[in-house]
Amino acid sequence: MGDYKLAEAEEKFAQIIWANEPVSSTELVKLCEKEMNWKKSTTYTVLKKLCERGIFQNENAIVSARLSREEFYGMQSRKYVEDVFAGSLPRFLAAFCGSRKLSQKEIEEMRKFIEENT
């Protein structure tokens, strides 16, 4: 599995791309200058890094996502469960829920999810 952890600035940058894609690299530079106070070189350096990691692509000066926001965060979440809970979803859910009780709606949503994915 790839590296799906982003530094804070990379994550903000990724959010800009996801919100505006497909976006020309020229427009992306302008957005990053306005939103993050980045210079053109910084934008291109971070873009290149995230393209190398397979998250985005820059083809013919048009930047777009290779992974949607949902796919990216889904992969990040699965990696976390693998690393911290030895891949055990029940152990993760027990830790996530802690001592709080699940609502009836949450239980029904989880049942529906399990039924649809088994």
Protein described:
The chain has helices at residues 8-20, 25-36, 40-52, 69-85, 89-97, 104-116; strands at 23-24, 56-59, 62-65. It is mainly α and 118 residues long. The chain has a three-stranded antiparallel β-sheet. The chain is elongated, with a radius of gyration of 18 Å. The model has no long low-confidence stretch (mean pLDDT 91).
CATH fold group of the domain at 8-69: Arc Repressor Mutant, subunit A
Helices, by number, come to: 6
- Report mean pLDDT, rounded to a whole number: 91
CATH architecture of the domain at 8-69: Orthogonal Bundle
Please report the first level of CATH classification, the CATH class of the domain at 8-69: Mainly Alpha
Q: Spell the H/E element sequence.
A: HEHHEEHHH
List unreliable stretches of 5+ residues.
Answer: none
Overall shape: elongated
Please count the beta strands (DSSP E, at least 2 residues each). Answer: 3
Residues in β-strands, percent: 5-15%
- Overall structural class, as computed from helix and strand content, comes to mainly alpha
Tell me the strand order in the biggest sheet: 1-3-2
CATH superfamily of the domain at 8-69: Winged helix-like DNA-binding domain superfamily/Winged helix DNA-binding domain
Main β-sheet, in a few words? 3 strands, antiparallel
Please state the CA-atom Rg, rounded to the nearest Å: 18 Å
- Share of helix among residues? 55-70%
> What gap, in angstroms, lies between the N and C termini?
23 Å
